Amino acid sequence: MAKKGAKQRDDDTIAVNRRARFDYEVLDTVEAGLALRGTEVKSLRAGKVSLQHAFATIKEGEAWLLQADIPEYQYGNIHNHWPTRERKLLLHRAEIERLAEFSREAGRTLVPLKMYWKDGKAKVLVGLARGKAQHDKRRDLAEKDAKRQVERTLAQRAKGKQ
């Protein structure tokens, strides 16, 4: 049984980019399909993917996921895939145009937040984000520490009353 308040990972979740919410202020999200090749699906099923350095971009009217590391499948043959190849994001034309418009503004970027399975297909949750300044990150850490301290104090008080 998980601890109270602990975040549980869904069974369908492949990977979460935890660093993205720390480095960026996520303004909106878009769900995109992912065009995969051969052994990439098997690597994803094994849960081997890293979104830490990944980002999305719009090139020539198409959305692409760059620097997402899906390692080669261990039992694959010579037709294995390149781990950090560019992968096409499957979106409607209107969504691509909206993402392109958003990313044109300075300081805004498209960041993959989560990769998961939905109806047997790999999906990526792309966040429309703005980079945080260093002082914003410090403030977030201070708020998180204060909240943790309050919870700890309340737990100790509740324990003392029993």
From TrEMBL:
Q: What is this protein's record name?
A: SsrA-binding protein
| Name of the gene encoding the protein in the UniProt record | smpB
**GO MF entries:** RNA binding
Q: Where is the composition biased (Basic and acidic residues)?
A: 136-151
Q: Sorted alphabetically, which NCBIfam families does this protein's record hold?
A: PRK05422.1, smpB
What are the alphabetically sorted keywords of the record?
A: Cytoplasm, RNA-binding
Which BP terms from GO are recorded? trans-translation; trans-translation-dependent protein tagging
Superkingdom of the organism of origin: Bacteria
List, alphabetically, the CDD domains matched.
SmpB
Q: What family is this? A: Belongs to the SmpB family.
Predominant place of localization: cytoplasm
Species for this entry: Egibacter rhizosphaerae
Record function comment: Required for rescue of stalled ribosomes mediated by trans-translation. Binds to transfer-messenger RNA (tmRNA), required for stable association of tmRNA with ribosomes. tmRNA and SmpB together mimic tRNA shape, replacing the anticodon stem-loop with SmpB. tmRNA is encoded by the ssrA gene; the 2 termini fold to resemble tRNA(Ala) and it encodes a 'tag peptide', a short internal open reading frame. During trans-translation Ala-aminoacylated tmRNA acts like a tRNA, entering the A-site of stalled ribosomes, displacing the stalled mRNA.
Give yes or no: UniProt keyword Cytoplasm. Answer: yes
Per the record, which residues fall in region Disordered? 136-162
Does the keyword Cytoplasm feature in the UniProt annotation?
yes
> Pfam families given for it?
SmpB
Please give an example of a GO cellular component term from this record. cytosol
The subcellular localization recorded is:
Cytoplasm
